[in-house]
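Session log. Operator J.P. requested a structure for one protein chain; no other inputs attached. Running the standard single-chain path with token output.
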Amino acid sequence: MAIGFAARIGVALLALSLAAGARADDEQETPKPQPAATPTPSGQKGGAGRGNAATTPPPAEQHRLPPDSTTKQTLALPGRTLAFTATAGSIRLFDDKGEPQADIAYTSYQLDGTEKANRPVTFLFNGGPGASSAWLQLGDAGPWRLSIGGDGAVASASPDLLPNAETWLDFTDLVFIDPVGTGYSRFVASGEDVRKRFFSVDGDVSSIALVIRRWLEKYDRLLSPKFVAGESYGGIRGPKVVHNLQTQQGVGVRGLILVSPVLDFREYQGSSMLQYMTSLPTMAAVAREAKGPVTRNDLADVERYAQGEFLVDLVKGLADTEATTRLADKVAALTGIDQAVSRRLAGRFEVGEFRREFDRRNGKVTGRYDASVEGFDPYPDSSYFHFGDPSGDSLLAPLTSAAVDLTTRKLNWRPDGSYQLLSDTVNKAWDFGRGQNPAESVSQLRQILALDPKMKLLVGHGLFDLATPYFASKIILDQLPAFAGPVRVKLAVYPGGHMFYSRDGARQAFRSEVEGLMK
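Structure written below.
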């Protein structure tokens, strides 16, 4: 997922990163000799009572993931059959002293019978921070797909995987990466230092870039055209990972694909007035969707208003009562929210306020990931917000079950421990930036496009996404220099939410855009 990103911003970014020369090795390390363990006294739990010393494996080996599992697969799809090699496995990362740090799990799909030097390969990850890659793999691009819309978007839905007619495997090999703490990826080193390094903006980027480099080496794919795709917080990861690959790993990237990205946290928090401007077209889209189908073209008037009169009246502030009333009444008309409520809030709706007020008369709240989806407010009479996300929370159970079933049964890889679809522990521990400066990737986006004039960028968004509104990306992309014009940079917006690919039409259209980018 498509997953929400944290609202907290860390106090200091640890600029530690895995050195470019760090080793990643898939072979079993030779354990260092260990001191003999103290014999367990006879009669106590865990001992045989014979008095002979037991050997304890090194901590890194106690946590090691099983050897990679490679299987041959055949997928029957409309009009074609795909034969491919699937691998579920991991890459071990080391620090600059050669000490093992983490095992990063990946799932790769490589089409059989292709010339690898000319065959594109795409590396995909989700966001969070703390999200595994299951949303992109099982919702959009992978060979098998789980229905995550309509009847499939409930917690008790059957997690049955079906052949995905819209898989990207026709035109690119796929490698789905689960950052440490997500999926089956795990630390093999103990101590707080290693956790802080990986759970930071820069440390996370360095680890993912290194995994990509090592995968390319392992499968002899350094000559292949390479692409990177990231979703949600992947908008922060993506440009930074590409920049790291270009400048530290010696790996060129042909294109970057961002799905529902956040590119700059400053627009979503604190006193920033831009948060009201960037979310207004999405709120208006939700109101219009309630009356019938809506496309981005139908929102041209709202976009013009948001960038024009709305922003001018917003800047005037509450001291200008005439401007405030005018703004509040216009917002009420666009969103369908009661005029009295809009005036009370001065037309400045935070996401949580809009989600509750939009259909409060019926005791319902909208989704955050997809505000066109509604659910019951568990405490409709409360003065406080006590509700989850009806467009996201219900997907956790079927996606987790489907991911585990795919990995263990179809791909025959059986790690111990639990699969982490979405880790709250990772999210809460994340260090987002230096001081009070929120994380942003716009700087790296400019740098990677300037460094390689042939590299292209595709950004996909859903109209009804209040987690990462499409208009925020539009404003940012409009600020890029002329060298990053429409020929190289494209914004595509579809009816749908954060996981807009849950809708058949949007998934099909976005697949065509991705294929066009690669050709």
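Operator note: The CA atoms of residues 268 and 455 lie 28 Å apart.
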